[in-house]
């Protein structure tokens, strides 16, 4: 029996998206401080992208598989997406807690690999849940509410090491040891990650498949690894045109943000603060400050998402134009980092980046969701996220190091110029998208 999807209230959408608070705690701590951990353990700046590579490589495999499995899961009590929320939450919590206790680079890289893979087990079903539960008219609104929650998580988590330092926790440590301020921050992040996902599980009900009898019939006919792999490959071959066009936008967008996550700490601590000795108080204080400045993009993305949520609930929006402008503003923010003369100016730079981040986390998914069959929403959300991990793999395998040195020169701050250029290219790539059903509410 086909169920009509009713409009949900703000708080119902908030509850079903609240787990993203914890997911973003994990991503913000990972993105803001794993490079700091790598540097503390002795990594050279040019080796940092390679140490990140296991995370996107795993995502390339995990995301479509989890999406496929969640599409084919249904239990009257546990639902379709919620079992994956819980499994991902448990594994992510463990990995996040133990990551700063790594005593060697291979251990830290392994912790990052497990953390990223585990977060992805939860994250992609969260994207699919919005499309599962909301009618077409509320999908932009739903993804924007997720972005609002993500912005809150980014800002709070990015400031945790700084807050721990202000509360008297040690922010320095011997060579090769991660400071207690970072360890405490990761422990708090692990707790928030688990409890916020559990909150969504306990407060959200899922709809059964539209035709339960047909769902069970299809599931019984398509069992086993070969069948599942073949179906995923078939879906990749038949992906909607809009997804391919958005893939170009996503490639440039996520190459830019991977560059930021990999190089923001070494680039800004050296260029803005003049600190390079990872055992010194100057470096660790500067690294805390970089984390706080990175939190600015989360805070601004929260307010930008709040504005978008209000607008999307009242009027129709041109998703393509909005995404184009937002990405170009973010690109400008990255480029301005090169030219600033005072640290406080980083707030302005990352405010512009926050506008792009809010749009990246909402508009592509809103444009895509209207072009995908509901029964394949999970697998296509997973496949779509291959366009997130592929650019990160290219970047980690030397793409960042090659491009920033080729285009701008050897100084590590030039990575921010590269990130800005790529984000502007991502914005202009929106002009490839012509389907009005995807671009307009």
TrEMBL record:
<dbReference type="Pfam" id="PF07690">
    <property type="entry name" value="MFS_1"/>
</dbReference>
<feature type="transmembrane region" description="Helical">
    <location>
        <begin position="82"/>
        <end position="99"/>
    </location>
</feature>
<dbReference type="InterPro" id="IPR036259">
    <property type="entry name" value="MFS_trans_sf"/>
</dbReference>
<dbReference type="InterPro" id="IPR011701">
    <property type="entry name" value="MFS"/>
</dbReference>
<feature type="transmembrane region" description="Helical">
    <location>
        <begin position="50"/>
        <end position="70"/>
    </location>
</feature>
<keyword id="KW-0812">Transmembrane</keyword>
<feature type="transmembrane region" description="Helical">
    <location>
        <begin position="251"/>
        <end position="273"/>
    </location>
</feature>
<keyword id="KW-0813">Transport</keyword>
<dbReference type="InterPro" id="IPR020846">
    <property type="entry name" value="MFS_dom"/>
</dbReference>
<feature type="transmembrane region" description="Helical">
    <location>
        <begin position="412"/>
        <end position="433"/>
    </location>
</feature>
<feature type="transmembrane region" description="Helical">
    <location>
        <begin position="321"/>
        <end position="339"/>
    </location>
</feature>
<feature type="transmembrane region" description="Helical">
    <location>
        <begin position="379"/>
        <end position="400"/>
    </location>
</feature>
<protein>
    <submittedName>
        <fullName>MFS transporter</fullName>
    </submittedName>
</protein>
<feature type="transmembrane region" description="Helical">
    <location>
        <begin position="293"/>
        <end position="312"/>
    </location>
</feature>
<feature type="transmembrane region" description="Helical">
    <location>
        <begin position="184"/>
        <end position="202"/>
    </location>
</feature>
<keyword id="KW-0472">Membrane</keyword>
<keyword id="KW-1133">Transmembrane helix</keyword>
<feature type="transmembrane region" description="Helical">
    <location>
        <begin position="105"/>
        <end position="123"/>
    </location>
</feature>
<feature type="domain" description="Major facilitator superfamily (MFS) profile">
    <location>
        <begin position="242"/>
        <end position="441"/>
    </location>
</feature>
<feature type="transmembrane region" description="Helical">
    <location>
        <begin position="143"/>
        <end position="164"/>
    </location>
</feature>
<feature type="transmembrane region" description="Helical">
    <location>
        <begin position="345"/>
        <end position="367"/>
    </location>
</feature>
